[in-house]
Structures are given as structure tokens and as C-alpha cells.
Amino acid sequence: MKKDYCIITKGRAMRNLLQVTRANFLPLAVVIVLAGLAAAYYSQRSLNGLDALFVMIGAVLTHASVNAFNNYFDYRSRIDARTKKTPFSGGVEIIVKGSMKPSAALATAVGTLVGASLIGIYFLTRFFSVLLPITLYGLVLIILYTPVLSRVHGVSELVAGSGFGLMGLGTYVSQTGRLEAAGIAVFVPVTILVGLLLFLNEFPDAEVDKEAGRRHLVVLLGRKSARWLYLAGLLATYASILIAVVLAAAPVATLLCLVTIPISYKASRITLASHSQIPKLIPALGLNVILILSTILLLAIGFAIGSFI
């Protein structure tokens, strides 16, 4: 009986850990790191396997920490108790329902941040001057995004997107030690795409977020106007990739990203038509996740192909 109880307890703890870190969203960090590594290989035709492993672990821990801090602070502000949950927005209920103690969620956030920081320190000892601004910026975002930055008018999407964009750029620097055009060619589209991920997921929660003092773009513009910004962001993403190819910052093979245009078209069409009808908008949220993950993965594949042709 005691053994069975331990197994059940450990299983419950693992489920709580996966939920509070939103493990289903962690593949985003994986594909971003792959894009940074592929760009670095494209630039120097070599890759440090151990450093690649370290940066991958650090990125996943960083993303897990961001999510855990977000869930903890959303519980403290009671947002999670009021939002209508969808598979892509509204947060998680494990703290609200008492399945996980707030202190455990905070400990998870701090623990994953410490793990990511140790890996960050390793890379700082090698590329201090280049990585220090990226590291400090990321640290500020992880800790202050939900309680402070989300309340600053119109910056939520930009700071979140740029934080993940810098994850890709930081990955590039961890291999090359330099800030170069290929790294920027990863940073720009990733920044826009992750900003769009957060942006569209804000549509269902706009009213609750406004009451809680958040001032993101959907709250400021209203859903009807904000829907056009989603379309503009998609166009900007593809334009950034085209410009990178034209400027020889990225290989022609990265135009594989254009394969996702039909997904963009469908997601934007639903968003434009159903911006305020949340049940009808949910398919667009799902398509948006697929779009973002596949576009970044194709960017990585494009850089990898470009390394051999």
C-alpha cells in the first residue's frame, strides 16, 4: 500500500509540474534553439555538440520558469480564477483548485530559473561581453513580465517576443561568440512570431485582463481593431525572411517558411471574422500555434539545407 501511495503521489507531482510549467508549450523553446544552432552551423560550418546540449537544456528551463512564474503571479492576482479556459489561453487551474500549493509553484519557477542561470553563467564565462546584455534582459523578463511589464501600455507582446527572439540569438552567439547577420535573421522572425502567439491568445482574456490592470495591445485597441494587427504581424514575418534572403543573411532555402502561408491565411481569416466570438476563434488559436512552431522549424531546416548547398 505504501509503495502504491508513493507511486500515486509521485505521479500527481509530475502532472502538477507539467501543468504549472505548461509543458505542452515547451517545444517552442526547442525549435527556437534548433533555428539558432542551424544558423550558427550555416555561418561557421561547425557545431559544438556539448554546448548545443547545454543551451537546449537552458532554454527549456528558461521557458519552464517563465510559465511557472506566470501561473504563480496569475494566481496571486486572481486572474486564473476568472478567465475562461481554452486549450491555448486562460492559464491553468491547478493552483486555483488546490491541486498544487502556490509555494510549490513558486519553488518550481525559482528552481528552473536557477538551473537556467547556472547554464547561463557557463556561457558568460566564455562570451561575457556579448551575452551579458541578452542574459540580463532575459532575467528581467522572467521575473517582472507578469507582475510589472504586462501592466505597461502596449509592451507585453514586444517584450515577450523579443525575449524568445533573444533566445534564438543567444543560441547563435553560444556557438559563434559573435553577433552576426545570420543570428539577426533568426531573432527578427522569432520575435514577431512569439509576439503573435501571445497576442492572439490574449483575445479570449481581454475583459479579465483589463479588469486586472493589464494593458496589452488587445485591451488597448479592442478586438475589432487588434485583429488587423495580427494580419500585419504575419505579413511582417514573411517579409523579414524574404529580406534576410535578399541581404544574404539567410540562405535561399529558408524560403521554405513560405510553405506555412496557407496556415496563416486560414488563421487570419478566422481571426478577422470571429475576433469577438471566442468559441469560433479557438480554431485560429490552434492554427496559430501550429503556424509558429512549423515556421520556426522550417527556418531551422532552411539554414541546415543552406549549409550543404
Largest β sheet strand count, sense and barrel closure: none
Domain count: the total is 1
How many individual helices?
Answer: 12
| CATH topology category name | Farnesyl Diphosphate Synthase
Low-confidence runs of at least 5 consecutive residues: none
Q: What's the mean pLDDT score?
A: 91
Structural class: mainly alpha
The helix fraction, in percent, is over 70%
Q: Taking Cα atoms only, what radius of gyration do you get, to the nearest Å?
A: 19 Å
The overall strand count is 0
Into which percentage range does the β-strand content fall?
Answer: under 5%
Give the CATH class: Mainly Alpha
Shape annotation: globular
> In sequence order, what are the helices and strands, one letter per element?
HHHHHHHHHHHH
Distance between the termini: 61 Å
